[in-house]
């Protein structure tokens, strides 16, 4: 699939969440939250099960069969175009994206609550990445070593579906105990009466503040919505969430791919790197942000100021995407074949013109010159040997000029059917000579840290700038805006920008373009940097206006009440006065 299509799948989560955000956040705020959460967990588990279905309903992975993509002038070669395209297993596989979309949709329907929302995905990257590395996709019926497949091979596919089955089982386990929680925990009412409202001053005389039963009926929904829409601080915080959500959602979908392409890493290794960086970065930023608000007892205006400072730092850190590695040398694409006479770059050359190579069969190999070839066939290799960790190729016509003209190449030896031969190419990615990966990961760590440092403070500011009776509904409305303007279009937009940097598309039998096989690293980095920087600047602007337009109830009153300076423990609440009929509140001696 194209990056745009995989982005569509990623957006399915947010589409599912978007459709149910308003009703569940409105009614869930006044009803049993454990009931809603447990139902969501169950639906999310079903989504995980649906997401794993394509593995069980489709045929074996193509490379699970014994296919030799070596140079041959025989029409019986399995990799020739007519034979490859005649296989039913290769038809309509791209339609499975709709099953993935349905699975993500159910994930979104069930996952509209905060539950390890930051650390969870990071742990998922680490565990899922290792699962891609440990087990081959058809591990039950196929031994990948017999096929010369290792987890460093570009055509290796790990057992991706197992983590979703585990997610389904865990959802069933968690569902039952969560459903047994009461509607409210003990002491909830007591804590609620002690809170001091910091709602934007426009709420001062509205039903959301005055009427304690406001929001319990469906007829209050339009009025409740209008109150929130007239709250400028709340609205600009929503726009901030949308711009930040667009960046985070896109990077969650494509950061492993960016690392894989830029630094020539295996898919499992790239996912592992993202998880290792995201756990301390996103998790640490989230917890520290919440700690700072609690430790220094920051008020709403001070919280937004703190977010503005962090946003300014995030703008500077977006320069991380300037770090880019040169493209790996690719014969016929970025570099010419050895001793190639024509100046026109093409994967077809004189050295492989008689090999009947199939452009549909992408199985890249790395030559001894550290140059990638579309397949062993396009490298002109005529002999193959299978070892425990890879396939080795020799007698490669496209490498012969290089071997003959060099006096310093030490070819490694391998055994094939008891005979020794010199290895000229391997079924692995060529190692990247770029050593910028540690710097990139460190910058990404800082980017995530400061991006998530404002996550809990901005959430706290959102809850404080609205009335108590609207907190749940306000979060629902905020996430609707975040979904529509941010997380739903984000994977599609970023996916399109990544596709624009493609320099070699996969050929398919129906003549449509498949997945991108090779990217222009510099163009990819430039595209990603441009949109990330733009969105970070927008976040800063929105935060500034949310702070500039905020008016607390205390500021609006413009005067201090005489009782504000009295020890809170000595104050009498209205409930206490009502319960004490003998107390004469007209007596001057009892006013203090």
Task: Give an account of the 3D structure.
It comes from Medioppia subpectinata. It is a multi-pass membrane protein. It is found in: Cell membrane. GO terms for molecular function: sodium-independent organic anion transmembrane transporter activity. This is Solute carrier organic anion transporter family member. With 592 residues, the chain is of the alpha+beta class. It folds into three domains: 430 residues, Up-down Bundle (Growth Hormone, Chain: A); 77 residues, no CATH class; 33 residues, no CATH class. It contains 20 helices and nine strands. A five-stranded antiparallel beta sheet has the order 2-1-7-4-3, with no helix packed on it. A hairpin with a 5-residue loop joins strand 8 and strand 9. Helix 2 runs antiparallel to helix 6, helix 10 runs antiparallel to helix 11 and helix 10 runs antiparallel to helix 18. The radius of gyration is 30 Å and the shape is elongated.
Broad CATH class of the largest domain: Mainly Alpha
- As for the CATH topology of the largest domain, it is Growth Hormone, Chain: A
SS field, number of helical segments: 20
Largest beta sheet: what is the strand line-up? 2-1-7-4-3
**Share of helix among residues?**
40-55%
Write the CATH architecture name of the largest domain. Up-down Bundle
Rg for CA atoms: 30 Å
Based on Cα principal axes, name the global outline.
elongated
The ordered string of helix (H) and strand (E) elements is HHHHHHHHHHHHEEEEHEEEHHHHEEHHH
What are the segments in which pLDDT stays under 50 over at least 5 consecutive residues? 75-82, 559-592
State the domain count: 3
How many β strands by DSSP? 9
Structural class: alpha+beta
Give the DSSP E fraction (strand runs of 2 or more residues): 5-15%
CATH superfamily of the largest domain: MFS general substrate transporter like domains
